[in-house]
Design a protein that fits this description.
The chain is mostly helical and 194 residues long. It has six helices and four strands. Strand 1 and strand 2 form a beta hairpin. The chain is globular, with a radius of gyration of 19 Å.
């Protein structure tokens, strides 16, 4: 599946945004508290925007924090959609609410690409428009099943399966995949020893 560079960046942004949600965080060790929100405050939104090179971020407030969390929840609904029609409806509503205005641009050393957000869009509208259109690209390509959650029982991270045969089960083969394979190996050895 050939994915344009800017669409790939937007998909990575969607995944990273979704993985800031409390349900995607690992349980804290022995604290007794629930998982923390990766977007706990406005500073976290600034940090997220900086990491993902989101342009035009002005002064952010509590409304922006709430709006970004709302967009994050809507993306989670798209990943959980049972079929392409439902996913398409969710993406259509998300993108329409962002007030998209597609524009060709070539900034910061990047070749021509499309920005779907309005020039003075909020961070939430920027994410909804650009990332929503990246999800639309996946749905249009008939590849909705590539929008997944990690199958490790204690994980829940979102990811986009870009493997050739759509067989990826874990958010990371180095962490979740390896951990579960080692546990299965140890269980088999224990069973064989008894």
């Amino acid at each position: 599946m050939l994915i344009p560079h800017d669409t790939r960046i937007a998909l990575d942004t969607v995944v990273d945004l979704m993985n800031t949600a409390p349900e995607s965080q690992p349980p804290p060790d022995g604290t007794g508290d629930g998982p923390e929100d990766g977007l706990a405050d406005i500073a976290a939104v600034y940090d997220f925007a900086e990491r993902h090179l989101i342009s035009g971020v002005g002064t952010l407030g509590e409304k922006d924090l709430a709006a970004v969390r709302d967009v994050r929840a809507r993306f989670a609904e798209v990943f959980a959609a049972p079929d392409p029609r439902t996913a398409a409806d969710l993406v259509n509503r998300l993108v329409a609410a962002a007030g998209t205005t597609p524009q060709l641009t070539d900034h910061d050393g990047y070749d021509w690409h499309v920005h779907y957000f309005a020039p003075d869009a909020s961070v939430a509208d920027h994410l909804a428009a650009d990332c929503g259109m990246a999800l639309a690209f996946i749905i249009v390509a008939g590849e909705q099943e590539r929008l997944r959650r990690c199958e490790a029982p204690d994980c829940g991270h979102a990811f986009v399966d870009l493997s050739r045969n759509r067989s990826r089960r874990y958010c990371s083969s180095r962490t979740c995949g390896n951990r579960l394979h080692v546990a299965a190996y140890r269980a088999r050895r224990k069973e064989a020893a008894s």
